[in-house]
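FORM 12-B: Structure-to-Sequence Request
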């Protein structure tokens, strides 16, 4: 499958590009970037052709992998889908449900394959945990704390403008939801409160009755970084294990699943459902009221 890579930043170069270059079923033939010099440098690294015209790139590929801010990604993903290209998207796939809905509609109308890269959903030990936990059942809810600290010197994501603007809700939140939804089911209603150091505290009421509480930040004090993800219920407590394997290896699995096609649990439809919860949480945070999920 001939891939075009849209994006030239750290994630595009070190994860998307590296995994596509190493995958036996993928051929990274094109790289697009708004900065022609950066596109040329990254394309040269992987033996691809650089482009500054998206439509010209789309005419040369079967699929696109997109490593761009979510708002930019949504526009280009829709453009690629309209051109009949399969989609390997990053999370979140869009910054609003309406944009995500448009992508899903075109993907389904055109019969395209789609994968949204929620990193942990492509790691074997986390996939096993989700499958086993979902099969156990009887869960009353989950408790999640994810305190990251990306604004330290040398962190490649600390300068990300969209992360600074949208915070942990939109950056860490998709990862959390990607594990919660397969186990506890869809979220019906969200409440949210902001806290110190840009922390977001969520209460999620799932359609089946379970309730999740989650606290997220990208700006924790370095000594207070924390990652806890526990389900609790009739059978006790199930704690998500520490993820194993690199992001490059996980992205390679995502490439493999897109190339093979077939039913995909993390397709654009699932990505859309995650965006709907995030958008409801965003409204709940701003308006200080519970919000139903679209």
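FORM 12-B RESPONSE
SEQUENCE OUT:
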């Amino acid at each position: 499958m001939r891939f075009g890579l849209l994006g030239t930043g750290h994630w595009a170069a070190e994860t998307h590009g590296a995994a596509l270059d190493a995958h036996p079923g993928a051929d990274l033939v094109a790289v697009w970037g708004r900065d022609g010099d950066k596109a040329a440098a990254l394309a040269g690294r992987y033996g691809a052709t650089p482009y500054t015209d998206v439509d010209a790139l789309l005419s040369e590929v079967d699929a696109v992998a997109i490593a761009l801010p979510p708002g930019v990604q949504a526009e280009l993903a829709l453009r690629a889908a309209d051109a009949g290209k399969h989609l390997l998207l990053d999370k979140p796939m869009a910054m609003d449900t309406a944009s995500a809905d448009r992508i899903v509609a075109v993907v389904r109308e055109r019969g395209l394959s789609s994968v949204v890269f929620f990193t942990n959903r492509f790691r074997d030990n986390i996939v096993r945990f989700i499958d086993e936990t979902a099969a156990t059942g009887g869960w009353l809810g989950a408790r999640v704390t994810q305190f990251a600290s990306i604004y330290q010197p040398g962190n490649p994501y600390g300068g990300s403008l969209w992360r600074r603007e949208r915070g942990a809700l939109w950056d860490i939140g998709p990862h959390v939801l990607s594990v919660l939804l397969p186990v506890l089911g869809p979220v019906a209603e969200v409440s949210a409160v902001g806290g110190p150091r840009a922390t977001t505290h969520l209460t999620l009421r799932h359609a089946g009755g379970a309730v999740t509480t989650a606290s997220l930040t990208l700006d924790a004090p370095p000594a207070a970084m924390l990652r806890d993800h526990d389900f609790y219920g009739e059978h006790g407590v199930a704690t998500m294990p520490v993820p194993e394997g690199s992001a490059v290896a996980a992205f390679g699995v995502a490439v493999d699943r897109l190339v093979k096609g077939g039913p995909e649990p993390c397709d654009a439809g699932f990505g859309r459902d995650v965006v709907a919860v995030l958008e409801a949480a965003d409204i709940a945070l701003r308006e200080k009221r519970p919000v139903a999920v679209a």
